[in-house]
Hints:
heterodimer; A: alpha+beta; Cytochrome-c3 Hydrogenase, chain B; 4-stranded antiparallel sheet; 3-stranded antiparallel sheet; 17 helices; 47% helix; globular; B: mainly alpha; 13 helices
Amino acid sequence: MGLKMEQYGMVLSEVESGPGGKRTLELLFGPQHPTSGHIRFFVELDGDIIVDIRPDPGFVHRTMEKLGETRHFMMNIPLFERLSLPDAINVTWAYSMAVERMLGYDVSERAEYLRTLFGEMSRISVHLYDLALHAIMIGSSTGFMYGFGLRDLLVNLWAIATGARTTPTWVLPGGVRRAPPKAFYERLAGFLDFLDRKMDEFYRLVVKNPVGYYRLKDVGYLSKSDAAAYLATGPGARGSGVDWDARRDMPYGVYKQLEWEVRVHDEGDSLARTLVRIEEVREAARIIRQLLKAMPMDGPLVGHNAAHKIPPKERGMLNELVRMSGYYVTTTNLAEGTGVTEGGRGRYFFQVFGAGTERLFRVRISTPSWQNLRAFMKATIGARLMDLPAIYGSFGFFPPEADR
Amino acid sequence: MEIPSWLLSPRLWDFLFDGVVSTLILLTIVWAERKIAARVQMRVGPLHVSPRLGGYFQLIADAVRFVMQEVIITVDSYRVLFVALPPLFVALALMPSFMVPLSPYLALLSRPSLHYGIIMALAVLFYLFIIVVGMGWAVNNRFAYIGAAREALIITAYEIPLLDAFASMFLTYRTIDPIEIVAKQTYIVGALYNPLAFIVYIIGVAMATSRFPFEIADYEGDVATGPYSDFSSIFLALTYAGGIYIALFSYSLLGALVFLGGWAPIAPGPWPADLWGNLAAAAWVMIKTFILMLFFVFLRSVMPVARLDHTLSFSWRWVLPIAVAATAVSAAEYFLL
């Protein structure tokens, strides 16, 4: 796939003959492009129709799986958080679940509730991020500002609770790092009301808007059997009628005790995927409201097995700040563990193998954007060139997560 | 003291007024676009450069930055066209505003050719965006090629309905002379005589000047600003950041004269015939132009971008029949009024 310098010049001398003798134009929708993200696509165009698209990922490959073997297993938490920063909690939750299953740690009840609360906030955060990018990809800068403006309020809530806006680094194997103060709960309810109002406005401005609606309707069709065959996940699958959600089908957290629904649409086009995202934001707000009523306000922040490792004098401070010393003297055992969570973009899968030292032997990661890449390619073939940003945003494709 | 006659010449004052006011309007409208979009989007917009004026001088700062940036002429481009077309674009974009009168006496052209002022202005404006196709050719990369092809398709889509809208108004007024056209509008402006023509005019101008939802040829989303993609510094200021708004100004000036009543006064009685009266009439025309431009730039905040084939089919399937209907309405008015 290399490109010679003289090939980048005038177009008419470079059209290739596709099968059947058609002339196609190869477009490098490359990383230096306002809409492509950190990935290059080789797009073959026949007029305005995309006849073939080949992805060229790897521009943001940060060797995360290898780095996971070179550091203490606790230091992997901020590392894997950077897989998908908008969805920080759900990514680190999957890793923490995997490590807990490997080490045999249990999770305290208060930590489960807190993790679920923050996980749903993380889902709202990544949906707002994806909807905002999708909006600006189809041209609506107002949608972009709405998404990021709302997300700004949410990350300020995270700053109150964990000390950092976008990198909370909050989930530990066995529990969570801090309990949020009272100011957090007071502001969270107000934020949810504001969010509901503004999501209605966003929907009317971008999706129900006739221009936006026809930009998304019947664009990038992915049938249900294709979505299942190409292992699409998240809104990419649920927008095509595949009714699978790790929160319900491989249960974790306290989702089983709450009343919520999995949002599925059957149409399979970009509009269906976008609607799944918008409705999941509302469902997440609903879950958070139920959690706020049922949240235990005191109790240990880490499970018994993890707390046992912390020296008794520091165990008293457990609820204000989990001291790390107990974790740092823990070595990994020669076992494996897997963790699956449903992030906003799809399901995160971590499999860790212990090495007997404080480092892991192997970390295997499967991210939703990597899973969705093939389905995304399948949905784009046959669409028009101007549909590429619309389909890209509707799958919520995030190259740093796909490349790891 | 004797005032020399050339200082009182209507041509000089028309030229000065048009040049100065079009520059002011250009600065203000770009500032207004950013401010309006910001207020719709729950943010503040330009504020830092001149806080007490609400960030108005941000535009001057941007212009200075554009001028001081390194001029890059890409290796693969056609150099002569690359360098020559942007100034040609902005010159031709401003020319139509000099071809039409701004008040009963302020005009650059004199009577026999002023009669055809609007026709000449339209002719230049329809040619204008073919220069954009030329720029896409000059830039010589694939994205510019696709953007230029899109621009050519969109030109064919909006030209006929827009021309038809103006032709309808000529039918309604029974004349093509701009001064007589304005004289025939009092409180019932052209938009009220023939609303269909006005709607076609709005859609046509939005398509012509790449206002959202029709920012398709220079769409940032997939052709990376298309024909303007390899231009930077002064070239970009002349085309993407300035020239398109000047074309919008010229279109809006024509619209203000034909559809919004031109210099028709709101208080009864004609404008005073001295210099200040004519300048006031010209200022009134410019205010109407500015209001029309405000509507076009407001569209940026509320509309996504339509797809190319949707736009073309919308134009041929809906806008053209509405333009024909506008002509029918005008023909009825020609015989009945």
